[in-house]
Amino acid sequence: LWKRPLPEWWNLLFPLKSGPARLTRHLVAVGDEVYTTLGINEPLAALDAATGKTIRTYEGTRTVEEIVTSGGVLVTVVNPDRKPVDYQQENANCWPERDRASKRWGWDETVDRLMAFGAATGKALWRLDSKIVPMSLAADGRRVVFHDGEAVVCLEQGTGKKLWRTGVPRSPIIPTGWSPSMVMYEDVILFSGQK
Q1: Are 154 and 178 in contact (CB under 8 A)?
Q2: How far apart are CA 117 and CA 45, in angstroms?
Q3: Is 151 exposed, middle or buried (CB count within 10 Å of its CB: 0-12, 13-18, 19+)?
């Protein structure tokens, strides 16, 4: 039906198909709208699913890393300090190359910005600066949860108010192509943080 150019994106070989894992969270479709970025450092945009035309953009999301939606709210992880990665392959063997990339570009425990928006309006609802482990973000319409490297944190989705925090173990290194898993089902939150 349509296509849009992405003028700047990650190197397709980064690092030999082992990441960055967060790219899988750059595209969400709900109803008649598609939410994505139109370049690696472009703001989050809502596109008309039938035409591809930009309907709205979301302020403060130029370096969005993840997008999750639930109950009409977009929850995003924005890394305000992200620098473009100029990946150049150094080893033809994929396993040493994966290990090199994970040591250099794996999760570095920087503070990200968790931002919630009204999906249909683009209005910012709340913001929280925190460490956020890649791909640990989940939402269910009432709550938002994520792993901050030491604990699972639960927030009220509509306000960002902290509801609880519970310590959990994690892998000592979180590489570029793998991350802990967080699943929400009714009143249960399942977390797996060991590789």
Answers
A1: no
A2: 12
A3: middle
- The Cα 57–Cα 76 span in angstroms is 13
Is pLDDT of 49 > 80?
yes
Strand partners, 73: 70, 118
Cα–Cα distance between 84 and 63 in angstroms, integer? 10
Contact 149, 110 (CB under 8 A): no
Query: pTM of the full predicted structure?
Result: 0.88
Find tokens 């989940």 and name the residue: 138
* Cα–Cα dist 10/16, whole Å: 12
What are 95-101's contacts with CB under 8 Å, separation 24+? 97/15, 97/16, 98/15, 98/16, 98/18, 98/175, 98/176, 98/177, 100/15, 101/14, 101/15, 101/18, 101/19, 101/175, 101/176
pLDDT, one tens digit per residue, over 17-46 is 556 777 778 899 999 999 999 988 889 999
Q: List b or e across 63-76, with b for residues whose CB sees 16 or more CB atoms inside 10 angstroms.
A: bbbbbbbbeebbbb
For residues 50-74, give the mean pLDDT: 95
Is the pLDDT at 84 greater than 80? The verdict is no
**Chain-centre distance of CA 83, in angstroms?**
16
The residues near 147 (Cβ < 8 Å, ≥ 6 apart) are 132, 133, 136, 153, 168, 170, 180, 182, 191, 193
